[in-house]
Amino acid sequence: MSAVILSNFRYDIQINMKQFENDILKMEVREGILISEHIAKEIIDLKQAKETFELRLKHIGDYPYPILADATKGKGATLEAQKYVLKADDELGTPAIAIIVDSLVSRIFGNLVINFVQNTKMDIRLFLDREKGIRWLKKYVQES
């Protein structure tokens, strides 16, 4: 979102930006990458994951963007919810997901969970550094 200030009035301008927010996630497409920030105060269950995925499709569309999933603020999701979202993204054709975590312990545990639930064609990696995750995802961005 860009802001323009003219004569003491501020105008927020959205230029070709897709975004969505509810009490579970904040999402927006930036430079061909779907940025997803988990903000839920409780653990996301399967029902919430399904509802949020449907809302994402409604507001963002079904284009298979590479995804940056920032898991540093939310409480996480049940194993069923994680499996559902990974399968849904895989069926959509999502090429890659970079998951941002906030500690080495989270990264080790996250890798174990991914190995347990992943049966997809997507490339999934965990990162401690958001910028490294974005740099890695850029190779998956399709020119439109």
- Sheet-strand content, in percent, reads 25-35%
Radius of gyration: 16 Å
How large is the count of helical segments? 4
Question: Helicity, in percent?
Answer: 25-40%
Q: Which stretches of 5+ consecutive residues score pLDDT under 50?
A: 1-15
Q: What would you call the shape? A: globular
Mean model confidence by pLDDT: 83
Number of strands: 8
Sheet with most strands: strand arrangement: 3-4-5-6-7-8
Q: Sheet with the most strands?
A: 6 strands, mixed
Distance between the termini: 21 Å
Order of helices and strands: EEEEEHEHEHEH
Structural class: alpha/beta
Question: Which labels suit this protein?
Answer:
alpha/beta, six-stranded mixed beta sheet, two-stranded antiparallel sheet, 35% helix, disordered N terminus
Task: Tell me the layout of helices and strands.
Elements: E1 2-6, E2 9-13, E3 19-21, E4 25-30, E5 33-38, H1 46-60, E6 67-70, H2 79-92, E7 96-100, H3 104-117, E8 123-127, H4 130-137
Parallel strand pairs: 5-6, 6-7, 7-8
Antiparallel strand pairs: 1-2, 3-4, 4-5
Helix pairs in contact: 1-2
